[in-house]
Amino acid sequence: MVQGISVGLGFYSSYSGGNAGSNASGVHRLTVQEAKELDNKNVQNPQIDAMKRSGQIECETCKNRKYQDGSDEMVSFKAAGHISPEASASKVRAHEQEHVSNAFEKAAKNDGRVVSANVSLKTAVCPECGKSYVSGGLTTTQIQYDESNPYSKNQKSLDNMFLLGQNVDLSA
To answer: pLDDT tens, 57-114?
Structure first.
């Protein structure tokens, strides 16, 4: 029989299909079904924790985790939706790419160009099962627009006049 993850105090988890029973030290090994039943009753057991970490039992925290977009753009996840920890990186990355695509479309429509687009993904670790997952993302974009507008040119020249002489190097 193939044995699972070794846990402190001589406990072992068994893979589904394995035989329940005692190991060499006489400690009862839980089957996946027994562990699920005990977990539903909120019984604390190191074997159950090991089975959650190895993915044999689904973690409630990961099962109930929802993702929702907080921006004012038309992108996915406007309504809260579930993403598994294994798929979170690709789904969040694809969602943030939608924001980047929107920036390029906005720049093209308004005679501008995207100067920079940065995407950062945030990771976290589930406190219940210990799995790493992508917990969210942030996209920042800078768009430079055509300055043929005389009002924006005047504003920049006023700003320039105000800022001249603001920085003085006294060490010279």
So the answer is: 778 888 899 999 988 888 888 899 999 999 999 999 999 999 999 999 998 988 888 9
DSSP state of 104: H
pLDDT digits 0-9 by tens, 26-39: 566 777 777 777 77
* DSSP structural state of residue 10: G
DSSP strand E in 8-158: where? 11-14, 21-22, 28-29, 66-67, 81-82, 112-125, 132-145
Strands (E), 15-111: 21-22, 28-29, 66-67, 81-82
User: Which CA distances in Å does 31 have to 14, 25, 98, 109?
Assistant: 6, 17, 44, 60
Cross-strand bridge partners of residue 137? 121
